[in-house]
């Protein structure tokens, strides 16, 4: 009688450990970039950007275009740095308006 209880207890503990480790791992990144756009993109064509997850193998910036497309670009490229600075300043709250 003790053997089935012990086996059942071990099974419950093992399932709890698996559930705990899977829950701690969490969901993977939603979008990673493996191919990168190398052509300069006009700032007027970009609506915004996001940085990809640190869990992605390649650090990247995902540009959200006004057309709805998304482009992957390398964050180390100078024109990308300039574009990010421009977008950050453009979106900064408290700036005076020209209205």
List the SSEs and their pairings:
Layout (H helix, E strand, L loop, with lengths): L1 H24 L20 E6 L9 E5 L4 E4 L4 H13 L9
Antiparallel strand pairs: 1-2, 2-3
Contiguous low-pLDDT stretches (5 residues minimum) are none
* Order of the strands making up the biggest sheet: 1-2-3
Radius of gyration, Cα only, in angstroms?
A: 23 Å
State the CATH architecture of the domain at 28-90. Beta Barrel
Strand content: 15-25%
> How many beta-strand segments?
3
The whole-number mean of residue pLDDT values reads 81
Organism: Menidia menidia (Atlantic silverside)
Main location: secreted
InterPro entries: Chemokine_b/g/d, Chemokine_IL8-like_dom, Interleukin_8-like_sf
Subcellular location: Secreted
Describe the structure.
The protein is built from two helices and three strands, in the order H-E-E-E-H. The protein has 99 residues and is an alpha+beta fold. The protein has a domain at 28-90: OB fold (Dihydrolipoamide Acetyltransferase, E2P) (Beta Barrel). It has a three-stranded antiparallel sheet with strand order 1-2-3, covered by helices on one side. A hairpin with a 4-residue loop joins strand 2 (61-65) and strand 3. Residues 1-23 form the signal peptide. This is (Atlantic silverside) hypothetical protein.
Comma- or semicolon-separated keywords:
(Atlantic silverside) hypothetical protein, secreted, alpha+beta, three-stranded antiparallel β-sheet, 3 strands, Chemokine_b/g/d, about 100 residues, OB fold (Dihydrolipoamide Acetyltransferase, E2P), elongated
